[in-house]
Amino acid sequence: MIDKNEAVAKFYNRFPYPNYPLLARPRWQDGFLTSSFFSGRLAAQARNGKSQQNAPRGDVLVAGCGEILPYIIRKWEPLDATVVNIDLSGRSLRRARFRTMLTRGKSEFHETDIVSFLDRCGAETRTFAHIETFGMLHHMSDPAPAVEGMARQLAPGGTLRVMVYNSPARDWIHALQDYFEEIGLSIHNNDPLKAVKKCREILDRFAVRSPLLGNRMRALGSSTMGNPARVADTFLHPRELRWPISRWFELFSSAGLRLTGIYDRYGELDDLPNPLLAGGSKLDWDYELTIRAADRRLEGNLELIWTKPPKPGTHALVSTVTRSAEHLTRLKFMGPPHIWFDFEETRDLSTARKMQIWHAFIDARKLVPSAWGKNHRTLQRLARLGAILPDQLDPENAKIAAAPREDQMSPPDIPHHVPLAQTDDHGPHAVAVRKLDAGLVSSSSCS
Ligand SMILES: C[S@@+](CC[C@H](N)C(=O)[O-])C[C@H]1O[C@@H](n2cnc3c(N)ncnc32)[C@H](O)[C@@H]1O
Question: Pick from 23, 139, 150, 212: CA 20 to 30 A from residue 52's CA?
Answer without folding.
Answer: 150
